[in-house]
Design a protein that fits this description.
Layout (H helix, E strand, L loop, with lengths): L2 H17 L6 H7 L11 E4 L1 H7 L3 H11 L6 E6 L2 E6 L1 H14 L14 E5 L14 H16 L3 E5 L7 H13 L2 H25 L2 H14 L3 H25 L16 H10 L3 E4 L2 E4 L9 E4 L7 H16 L3 E7 L3 H13 L8 E6 L2 E3 L2 E2 L10 H19 L6 H17 L8 E3 L1 H4 L7 H16 L16 H23 L3 H20 L7 H24 L9
Parallel strand pairs: 4-5, 4-9, 9-10, 11-13
Antiparallel strand pairs: 1-3, 2-3, 6-7, 7-8, 11-12
The chain binds one RNA strand through strand 8, helix 13, helix 14, helix 17 and helix 18.
RNA sequence: GUACCUGUAGCUCAGUUGGAUAGAGCGUCAGACUCCGACUCUGAAGGCCGAAGGUUCGAAUCCUUUCAGGUACGCCA
């Protein structure tokens, strides 16, 4: 049991003593405990205001009564101030318990088995065929990747799904362009860029010769009908795109369990349409078939076009059902930009109306738009920023700093990659995901202050200190960690598991990014105020333990948001 | 027009289910390396939490109205 839980349990006993029956339990009480704004007020506090009505007493009186009834114990003291009962954790106990717990299982701090036997599906990244990976894909990729690691940390089985955008008439047009103007060698050499060039040329030529549009549609029809030649070319284009994306994924360390994209669901939509019809949800409207959602203050969800063809929503409903059938998920998350908010609200509602009780486990994890130096990204206008360029420049910047500050470092290119990429990922996962991001080079390449490299630096610094420890450590003098700076570090370490919980609950990786940064800041302050290796043996042992714990938790925190933690940089 | 999201320091943003004196980084100014890694640390300046009402013992947080910006709204995905 952690210190906070022990305080809550003891507070429960105290409530019984002071006021007889207390209609609550220790868990509920633990949630009522809060962190005072200033550490001088205590480590945790219980606001007595909520009890005022039930007990018909003023909050200060309640706090006083609780303080009087508080039985001395070895882990915390209590004091009342202005209607709050403030708790001061025993400093030695906090040090002993926190560090023992962290160091008992390296890399596991904050992990649980609460998700054992349960599966979370995560739909993220979801790239389009024949398009290059650009900065706009970063958020979905990294938020999804991070959430996946967070859920794994909590014992869940996870399924990472890259829902490929691999269906639509544009692919018929692309084949048409390839057949007319492309060559195998040229496309093999140029990859996705060559495909893009063909697509652009198609549009230019089609303006002069509208017949091309029909030719493109005809090629798409051949894909739909399973024509071998069309499928071969299409699958080849698909492979080229995946190879291109895989290069970026491998730099970022991102992986998937499934690449089942839009085309995968082609033969799974009839069932949805039939089912909707049987359940009386499908109504004819202006020639199309829709599910009316007026009762829920939403526009109708279009299932079938006038020509009988299916749509995006049809496909997503089929995909949701397929995923539930296949993975029996406890949660299914869609890491998709907020522009699609209405779409997902409609889809989820239709699934609810179909009578599937698991509709409540579907969640749209929305995130903000990314723009580039104040302007909306636009491939057509040439205002694009490819992710590889961003990662490359960040790596170059990191390498330049390494050359300047640690010229003797081994493995410089690899470390530069870790640091440069760390800066980019950190910037993406630093703030609440709903915020729009405007990308500026100078901001992305800033390595000072609250940045990935700052946190990585602190980790490397811990590693450096630990490397200098020689021989056996003496018996730990926990009391040596009673100073304010060490205590701040310990408190933050002790709260890390709660932060992981909250991050999962809110599907918000930034909570972990920020808390990990707080730990780094607190440790750097501690580092400046205290000598670690030159002191009494028992004190050295204690400070080394603290350093080891900080190193481990920072590494875990960074891992959970998808950032590597080099030991030297 | 309707729905959703966002307005907190010059800039970028934190701020837990309402709680004590609203915080951090960047930038600015002033400091700290004969010492375990200065990609570090200390200090200063900087605020009508978009605005107005309301609920409450208590509101940046909840409700209403309103202003500003963004996004989405039937046959694309």
């Amino acid at each position: 049991m952690d210190m906070k839980a022990r305080v809550a349990a003891h507070l429960l006993t105290t409530l019984h003593t002071a006021f007889g029956d207390a209609a609550t339990d220790a868990d509920a009480l633990k949630n009522l405990l809060e962190v005072p704004p200033d550490r001088a007020m205590g480590d945790y506090a219980f606001p007595c205001f909520t009890l005022a009505k039930a007990l018909r007493k003023g909050p200060p009186m309640i706090a006083q009564a609780l303080a009087d009834a508080w039985q001395p114990c070895d882990f915390a003291q209590a004091a009342c101030v202005n209607g709050y009962l403030n708790f001061f954790l025993d400093r030695e106990q906090l040090a002993r318990e926190t560090l023992s717990a962290v160091l008992a299982a390296p890399g596991k701090w904050g992990s649980t088995d609460q998700g054992a036997g349960r599966t979370v599906c995560l739909d993220y990244s979801s790239i389009n065929i024949a398009k290059r990976f650009h900065i706009g894909h970063l958020s979905t990729t990294m938020i999804g990747h991070s959430l996946r690691r967070i859920y794994q940390h909590l014992g869940y089985n996870t399924v990472g799904i890259n829902h490929l955008g691999d269906w639509g008439t544009q692919f018929g047009k692309m084949i048409c362009a390839y057949k007319r103007w492309g060559t195998k060698e040229q496309v093999e050499a140029g990859g996705v860029d060559a495909l893009m060039a063909l697509y652009v040329r198609f549009h230019d030529e089609a303006e002069k010769d509208p017949a091309l549009e029909d030719e493109g549609r005809a090629w798409f029809k051949r894909i739909e009908d399973g024509d071998p030649q069309a499928l071969d070319i299409f699958n080849w284009f698909k492979q080229l795109t995946l190879t291109d994306a895989e290069r970026v994924y491998s730099i970022l360390g991102v992986t998937f369990d499934s690449y089942a994209g839009e085309s995968f669901y082609n033969d799974k939509m009839d069932r949805v349409v039939t089912e909707l019809r049987e359940k009386g949800l499908l109504v004819e409207s202006q020639g199309a078939y829709v599910v009316d959602l007026e009762a829920y203050k939403m526009p109708p969800c279009i299932i079938l076009k006038k020509d009988g063809a299916t749509l995006y929503a049809t496909r997503d409903i089929a995909a949701a059902i397929y995923r539930h059938d296949t993975y029996d998920f406890a949660k299914s998350l869609y890491v998709v930009a907020y522009q699609q908010d209405l779409h997902f609200r409609q889809v989820f509602k239709v699934i609810e109306l179909m009578g599937y009780d698991w509709h409540a486990s579907l969640e749209h994890v929305a995130f903000g738009m990314i723009s580039y130096e104040g302007q909306t990204l636009s491939t057509r206008k040439g205002h694009v920023l490819y992710l590889e360029d961003v990662l490359r420049r960040a790596t170059e910047k990191a390498l330049a700093i390494i050359e300047e500050k640690s010229p003797g470092l081994e493995n410089k290119p690899e470390v530069a990659r870790q640091v440069g990429i760390g800066a980019v990922i950190y910037a993406d996962l630093q703030n609440n995901r709903i915020k729009d991001i405007d990308f500026w080079w100078d901001r992305a390449l800033n390595f000072d202050g609250e940045t990935g490299p700052y946190v990585q630096y602190t980790h490397a610094r811990c590693c450096s200190v630990l490397r200098k420890v020689t021989g056996e450590l003496a018996v730990t003098d926990w009391a040596a960690l009673a100073d304010d700076e060490a205590q701040m570090v310990l408190l933050l370490l002790s709260r890390f598991p709660d932060v992981v919980q909250e991050a999962a609950l809110r599907n918000e990786p930034s909570m972990i990014t920020r808390h990990t940064t707080l730990i780094a800041q607190a440790y750097n302050k501690f580092y400046y105020e205290h000598r670690i290796l030159d002191d009494e043996p028992g004190t050295v042992a204690a400070r080394v333990m603290l350093t080891k714990a900080v190193q481990d938790v920072i590494k875990t925190g960074l891992y959970l948001v998808g950032i590597e933690a080099p030991e030297r940089m």
